[in-house]
TrEMBL record:
Gene3D superfamilies: P-loop containing nucleotide triphosphate hydrolases. This is ABC transporter ATP-binding protein. GO terms for molecular function: ATP binding. Keywords: ATP-binding, Nucleotide-binding, Transport. CDD domains: ABC_NrtD_SsuB_transporters. InterPro entries: AAA+_ATPase (IPR003593), ABC_transporter-like_ATP-bd (IPR003439), ABC_transporter-like_CS (IPR017871), ABC_transporter_ATP-bind (IPR050166), P-loop_NTPase (IPR027417). The keyword Ribonucleoprotein does not apply. Transmembrane segments: none annotated.
Length: 301
């Protein structure tokens, strides 16, 4: 399977419907300003990326001129129809796939096709079955250039495991854990990786509603203390609005950015915002956009 050149021209991004203002919310590298007043380059810029899979004579266009930005310390969510190309986009940002055209920049540097620049939690937890749970979490440090001493790393891993309800499972192997527990381990491994930019591909999708809500609260707390740059894929609009500073709404495949929504709620965020008018309005608007895309997909043969 190879990615081949995609000749389709990128479409013009969609309109605003009163909530989305690309002009207002899209800050470029030259305009972002850090707390110290110094101008800072975005943690991530994806510029006009086209990608398609080719198998024998068939070409499947997956990304169609997709561009997005994550500023330093910003939490950005991506929502889009199933199969539109979200995980493929992450594979491209992580350097696992090369796009036919377009660029991936981190801190202003062209890193298109380069691996090892991001901390990544894939959609499937992908734990190593022969390593214990704590050794799976420790892997984040082992593969990094700045490996902390083993005892220190172990104490840190155990502390985190217990904080996500996995105390007592340190010596267990992945097959002894439920899907949701495995997701929490994979999430910790990404969190403890040293790379500044985290890509999270539906990290909570296998969790029951209650655990999911706990994990959202937990992630929000950790993120508000550490302010890593995060790009987060989710199917859950409420989750996106609760966690993110900005949301990109993607089209059907081949995916492009249809809308960009700035989430205006103060931090630290309280769960009560989910009942506020501004929250519910945005939730309704994004659901409508998603429904429109689903309708279009049904009409396309
Ligand atoms: N390695 C591959 N070879 C061929 N086609 C692929 C490959 N990986 C993904 N695809 C196709 O590309 C399209 C986008 O897949 P992708 O996994 O990026 O979607 P997604 O938006 O992450 O979906 P979901 O929300 O269901 O996770 C799909 O049609 C999928 O079948
Ligand atoms: Mg996916």
């Amino acid at each position: 399977m190879t990615l081949k050149y995609n000749e389709q021209a990128p479409p013009v991004p969609g309109g605003s419907a009163g909530i989305t203002t690309r002009e207002e919310s899209h800050r470029t590298a030259s305009t972002a300003t850090s707390d110290s007043g110094k101008q800072s380059l975005p943690a991530l810029e994806v510029q006009d990326v086209h990608a398609s899979f080719r198998e024998r004579r068939n070409k499947l266009s997956v990304l169609n001129g997709l561009s997005l930005t994550v500023e330093q310390g910003e939490f950005v969510a991506i929502v889009g129809p199933s199969g539109c190309g979200k995980s493929t986009l992450f594979h491209i940002i992580g350097g696992l796939l090369k796009p036919q055209t377009g660029l991936v920049l981190m801190n202003g540097q062209n890193v298109t096709g380069q691996r090892g620049k991001i901390s990544y939690m894939p959609q499937q937890p992908a734990l190593f079955p022969w390593r214990t749970i704590e050794d799976n979490v420790l892997l984040a440090g082992e593969v990094s250039a700045h490996t902390p001493p083993k005892a220190e790393a172990l104490a840190e891993a155990r502390k985190w495991l217990s904080s996500v309800g996995l105390g007592g499972f340190e010596q267990a192997y992945p097959h002894m854990l439920s899907g949701g527990m495995q997701q929490r381990v994979a999430f910790l491994r990404a969190l403890l990786s040293p790379q500044e930019l985290m890509l999270l591909d539906e990290p909570f999708s296998a969790l029951d509603a209650l655990t999911r809500s706990d994990m959202q609260r937990w992630l929000l707390d950790i993120w508000e203390q550490n302010r890593r740059s995060v790009l987060f894929i989710t199917h859950n609009i409420e989750e996106a609005l609760l966690l993110a500073d900005r949301i990109y709404v993607l089209s059907n495949r081949p995916a492009t950015v249809l809308h960009e929504v700035r989430v205006p709620f103060d931090r630290p965020r309280r769960e009560e915002i989910t009942e506020e008018k501004a929250f519910l309005e945005r939730k309704r608007q994004i659901s409508e956009w998603m429904k429109e895309e689903q309708k279009k997909a049904r009409l396309t043969p």
